[in-house]
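To whoever is on call:

I kicked off a structure prediction for a single chain this morning and the downstream step that reads the tokens threw a length-mismatch warning. I double-checked the sequence; it's 242 residues and nothing unusual in it as far as I can see. Pasting both halves so you can look.
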Amino acid sequence: MLQAAMWGAIAGSSLVLGALLGIFKNIPNKVSAFVMAYGTGVLIGAATFELLTDAVKEGGILYPSLGFLAGATIFILAELMIMKKGGHERKRSKTSPRGHSGMAIFIGTIIDAIPESVIIGVSLIEHHSVSWLIIIAIFISNFPEGLSSSIGLKKDGYSKKKILLLWSVVMVLASLSSLLGYILIDPASTWLVTTIGAFAAGGIITMVSSTMLPEAFEEGGPIVGFISASGLLCSLILTYFG
């Protein structure tokens, strides 16, 4: 239980690290785009090699397929709601985002963070050890989100102290979500565990396709394709040795 809470907090801590950079440093757009592109590759690999492959191997094709489609659908519905509230750029790396709504960004980040963190707890149930691939993927992908969103919150008039408090709350929620995933999910319910894994994979693939990768290309140019492929290769290597 302590491991689940600890690893959930570690994965979410990059939001705070990104926020610190976003508040106190001026990061070039291309650097943020490259970080985002690499995180995109790692996340695609984590969703494919770790979550989907394991789900289909252990639970067949039906429940993982339904879970995957449900995760994709719910993320898109949440994204549409957030867009209407002004939080559509919460995953973006622009140094001068427009149309930000600070609280919408905060809520949107929670929507992203909780399912990802639950999977950390689930991975501890399934493998009796933490999934390094999931931890690294979440950590890398959260960093540019914390970086870019903090710039938006600052432009909305939020104080540095309040911005850090908001991201600290998200990190705590990530820790609690991982803990609850470990406590509440019955490891004997194979269909439930595999569905949750596929659900998270669907949300991750949809998220990187609609937000992270397009923005990375917009800011970084064609080279982000190679950087993203490098992140995917990193996932494959981690899966192989893991």
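Update from on-call: the warning came from a stale cache, not from the record. Cleared it. Sanity check on the structure: The longest helix spans residues 29-59.
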